[in-house]
Amino acid sequence: MNVNKRIRRSPEESKSLILKTAADRLAEFGLEGLNISGVAKAAGMSHATVIHHFGSTSAMREALLQQMTDSLLSDVISALKEDVPPDEVLSRLFSTLSQGGHGRLLAWLALDHQGISVLPSAGNTSELFRSIIDAISEGPGNETDAKLQVLLVATAAMGLSICGGALSNLIGLSEEESAEFPVWLAQHLQTLAPQP
After folding, report:
1. pTM for the full predicted model
2. Which of 7, 86, 116, 153 could form a disulfide with 186 if both were Cys (CB 3.0 to 4.6 A apart)?
């Protein structure tokens, strides 16, 4: 006789398992893998349990994006604090956005929520961006420049994660040349830095 035992988890453990499973399915199947029934089945939970914790597929996707973005920004902050060379910081950032569907999820949610920010302007994400801006601005007068640099890097990284391969082919860049883009961008950002 096959009896399925229910596994008791705290709400935090359940949410964590759901988001980990969703991240795995995003990496393996793309956005099509991020549906409540598929995530529930892969996590060994009922559909109702996932609905209980997130309410909808869209809310689950937004929570996954929030978690992935906070992790990415925390990694950038750690690298800046450890004086990791800028080209390595950008290479890691571009790589992380391109792997696992992070950039594509952000783009999909941005298009799905046209006119509405998919990342909250308050909370952890905003604080993480603030930390990055503080780390790269070398004084109060350079804050706008630092914000614009962050915008340039974020926009370039997002674009590359979504359609970088296709654009590189159209432009005639080899895979090796395309892989040099983060290093090239880091070098050029240094030339844009205001001189004292």
Report:
1. 0.77
2. 86
Long-range contacts of 159-162 (CB under 8 A, 24+ apart): 160/94, 160/97, 160/98, 160/103, 161/94, 161/97, 161/98, 161/102, 161/103, 161/104, 161/107, 162/103, 162/104, 162/107
How confident is the chain (196 residues) per 10-residue block, as mean pLDDT? 61 92 92 92 92 91 88 87 86 84 82 59 68 77 84 88 87 90 88 62
Closest CA relative to residue 100, chosen from 137, 132, 68:
68
How is the chain split into domains, by residue range? 9-55, 64-192
Measured distance CA(52)–CA(37) in Å, rounded:
13
